[in-house]
Specification:
The chain is an alpha/beta fold and 245 residues long. Helix content is 35%, strand content 22%. It has one domain: Vaccinia Virus protein VP39 (Rossmann fold, 3-Layer(aba) Sandwich). A seven-stranded mixed beta sheet has the order 3-2-1-4-5-7-6, with helices on both faces. Helix 1 packs parallel to helix 6.
Amino acid sequence: MSERHAKHSANTSEEIRALYTDLAHHPGKDFGWGTGRENARALGYEERWLDSLPDRVWESAAAVGNPFSLGPIRAGEVVVDLGCGAGADLCIAAHLVAAAGRAIGVDVTPAMVEKARDNATLTGLGNVEAHIADIEATRLPDFCIDVVISNGVINLTAHKPCVFKEAFRILKPGGRLQFADMVRAGASDAVSCDSWASCVAGTVDPGRYLEMLRAGGFVEVELVGFTGYKTAASTIGATFKARRP
């Protein structure tokens, strides 16, 4: 990586951490895109989770789609949430896998990881872990995960194939990848001066995700649909699923 690109990557990472630290500490602030319980309701989250999880769990959630709509998560499974944020999806996953399973979150923003841990404690969940780690390098063992989920995070990295390579590495044979993310809308282009942290500048055409997933070894790769979530005129939320052979 050139010095210029390394500096850009470092600056982008700092921008992302700063924005999501702000969201963790000031969830009532208007960030220009949907957050919280009502945003999750609009994205089709089940009422049982919307009603049962405390307000604090939802307040810093910035879901762009619903990864739980993409396939069942079963009791006893191990789930990892790449970019877990404040842990709303992590808490849902922990309930689904029950006491015999585990829900593991990784995120690069320390304030979000701390909040995810606090939210797990608040809800009484003992099968949740949250770690500060890059989604490109989770430090988890090979073949240890049944389901990888993610929500609005993969677009934030310039190294998207590395994320899918990491997901493939940690998934067990037959393991599933279910994620929602921001993509480019139609033929629009993300402008280089737009914000990476606000899920604009890092978006790609949804077809590129399908190409990356297949190139990374995944099968049953599918763009499931669009969610209607917007961070700019040039972006839209989309859901994807795939399986490790």
